[in-house]
Amino acid sequence: xxxxxxxxxxxxxxxxxxxxxxxxxxxxxxxxxxxxxxxxxxxxxxxxxxxxxxxxxxxxxxxxxxx
Length: 67
Known about the structure:
Order of helices and strands: HH
Largest sheet: none
């Protein structure tokens, strides 16, 4: 099931909107490649966190990010 900004996995609810959107984008791409939902979510979560941290973007709401 593809996700969007209104319908996404519960595990992404505390992410900042920017990181959540990136995780959704990655997860949907993984689904198209044939990954099952649970692995797509796990992989997308890790990749979106890495993406944000490399850019100094806060991952979770209330985070300040990292240099």
